Amino acid sequence: MATVNDAQLILHLYEVRREPVMRQAREWFARECNPKTVEDLTGLIPPGSDANRFFRMVTSYWDMAASFLVRGAVDQDLFLDNCGECLLVWRKLSGIAEGLRAQRRSPGYLRNIEEVFRRAEARRAAH
Fold it and tell me: Following DSSP, what letter does each residue of 68-98 receive, concatenated?
């Protein structure tokens, strides 16, 4: 059962998403970030570019937010009801996630987002 604290955290996550640069980053990610390979992504987000900054903002934001669910800091159903954009991030990057993890030498990269997606799929299958 969700608590008032859960609701406050969800509202705070929403407020952060409304910040102007974060809005730009989210819009860029939704419209422009469609890599099919790690190489596609590398070409799309060259170091120092706005695209690179936007990519890092969106992925780090959603991995952090997803960690709240994964670690039990927020009610799962409340999070899944209100944070569907996290699932979009995984849909766009799932095909290249293993390659990104290898490239970055970070086996945990995007794991929280992946786990949220897994839980959302299990929830959908149960309903």
Answer: HHHTTSS-HHHHHHH-THHHHHHHHHGGGHH
CB 37 within 8 A of CB 102: no
Average pLDDT over residues 97-123: 98
The Cα 77–Cα 102 span in angstroms is 32
DSSP state of 121: H
Angle at CA of residue 57, ends 73 and 48, nearest 5°: 155
pTM of the model: 0.95
What angle is formed at CA 93 by the lines to CA 35 and CA 120, rounded to 5 degrees?
A: 145
Closest to 17 in 3D by CA, of 30, 32, 2, 1: 30
